Amino acid sequence: MNIDDTTNSDLKGPELNSRVYTTIKDQKGWSALHLACQNGHIEVIKLLIDVGMNINDTTNSGSTPLHKACQEDQKGWSASHVACQNGHIEVVKLLIDVGMNINDTTNSGSTPLHKACQKGHYETVKFLLDLNGQALNSRVNTTVKNDKGWSAFHLACRNGHKEVIKLFIDVGMNIDDTTNSDLNGPELNSRVYTTIKDQKG
Questions:
Q1: 82, 89, 95, 124, 140 from 130: Cα distances, Å
Q2: Using an 8 Å Cβ cutoff, are 140 and 103 in contact?
Q3: What is the DSSP letter of 195?
Q4: At what angle do helices 112-119 and 122-130 cross, to 10 degrees?
Q5: Tens digits of per-residue pLDDT, 37-83?
Q6: How many CA atoms lie less than 13 Å away from 61 in the CB half-sphere?
Q7: Distance between CA atoms of 187 and 102, rounded to whole angstroms?
Q8: Could you tell me where the DSSP H helices lie in the chain?
Q9: What DSSP character marks residue 193?
């Protein structure tokens, strides 16, 4: 089958008459891959990548298909940041499979793990931490801090995501880790340290 075969009718307006031709875009610079990603069609995305579509291709406004998969493009965020913030674990897996840097930082220093922890996406955080296997930080660096000195663990604590906090404790995260900013008043700078109690409470 010719993947560039055209229809009698125009599928996407006068500029586009091929469903998968790898270089055709609409007036806004969107390719078929951008559209598939925006609509979350994982199998179609895989097919288009397999036939050679460029995953780094940009629209006229600078968005890649993977940004469209994640529905947002802002402040130095990669597609991985947005997928993690939205808890789109299947998209996160796909992004890792195609080689995206899971420790990439935004303009403010946040990693995708920061974004997942901030929103309390348990399954996404678990998936990222599980990538490390038995060696903490071997693949996903849990110690990266943003420009306020906050780690992903701090964000999970700040937002009260108990199940996510337990994940970090289970993998050996330092619960006394401190931030650059003062979370608990002038005397203390660790959110977790103030909650530690002994067996008697």
A1: 20, 13, 16, 10, 9
A2: yes
A3: G
A4: 150
A5: 766 677 787 788 888 888 778 888 777 776 666 555 557 788 788 88
A6: 12
A7: 35
A8: 32-38, 42-50, 65-70, 79-86, 89-97, 112-119, 122-130, 152-158, 162-170
A9: G
